[in-house]
Predict the 3D structure of the following.
Amino acid sequence: MFSTRRKRKKIFKKFEKTLFKFAPAALLIIGILTFNVYSTNAYFNDIENSIGNNFSAGILDINISGRNISGIVNSGNATTTTITLSKSNPANLNYQYFASSTILDTDQTACDYIAISASSSPQIISSPLKNFISFASAPIGPVQWDFTFTATDSIPSADLGKICNFKISYIAWQTNLPNSLQGFSDVAEIDGSIQIGTAPTVPIVPDVVLNEFLPNPIGNDSADAPDGEWVELYNNSSTNSFDLSSWYIRDASATGKVDILLNNTYDFSIHASSTIIAPKGWLVVYMNKEFLNNSGTETITLFNSSGVQQDFYSYASSGVPINKSFARIPDGTGAWVDPIPTPGGPNKAEEILGGSSSEVALDILVVETSTSTEPIATSTENIIGDLVATTTPEIIAETASITPEIAEPVIIPPEPEIISEVVDEPIPESIIETPVIIEPETI
């Protein structure tokens, strides 16, 4: 029995020791769970003493000398230039570099036809201008680059005269670094502008002139064709047709412009849109917008596809009457008057009962017209005098002389027969003549 007690006592002591051993851990766990302690932070620090540091600074700066690149190149002509690359004062860092081209135009058509040959010993590079890039090189002293620009042999005539704008860039960086994105770097650039060939000049065609226009039509001035404002052109040539594609018309403002295109022209002789004006023919250009002034001053100018002025006409008015055109009579060569509109056909003066055409709209003043020089203003008094004194008789006489040509370009439908009653009216006494009675002589 004594032995059993001793065994129990030993077991109790072991349990007591174990309990005291794990009690702190158990209490810690109970505390964490009870008081919501989820984490703890620990911080560390250290102190190191530096024996010594050396700091140094330098300058990397490159400079290029030479004129900007310019010239005209074609199949038989080249342009050359020389550029010298060097360190500028007081730069003291050695450098490495490469050169490349960048096209500056949105339309790069002209640049497609230019080739570049660049040499700087030991490099010789030939490539299209758009793809030019040199190898990286680390020069010791100044470096000279010789450039030659040439054009390919297959430049379309439509692209002749176009200009390629570009730049040649030299990118430099430190020799102990792999590229220009690290350490010190510098960029030097030179601009270039090269024309490919010479555009063929389009001579003035004096045969094609302004002939008639309608500034104040019935309805909306800005209406689309066949309504709205229009300008009629006439070809004085008896033998030659002309393509007026890319010709244009300007008004007196700096921004007013209407291009002559297939979708805004009409040839009444063929009843179709066209940019071709036939010999002794008319071509109507619809403005499709409000373009010409109805009051004040205005100038209409015709330009060919090279931007050369063909013809112009200026007028001033206190108010252009509705549906009254300005026109030359006879077509292409005559004086400007204000007849009824005749788009696409011979111009004719309006017939006015009880008066002459000189009595119509005398407030419309002709300023000047020409085929080659700038507009020159003329005094109002002379204009009115010319309209009243000289213009009208010439208009009536010349209009009669061109009447036979009307049936040629314009087919006029037959007019319906008008039947009218003949009414017997009494003849006024003042008109009835009394017969003279001659009595026979007496023999």
Observations:
- Residues 303 and 409 are 26 Å apart (CA to CA).
- The helical segments are 2-35, 380-402.
- The radius of gyration is 47 Å.
- The longest helix spans residues 2-35.
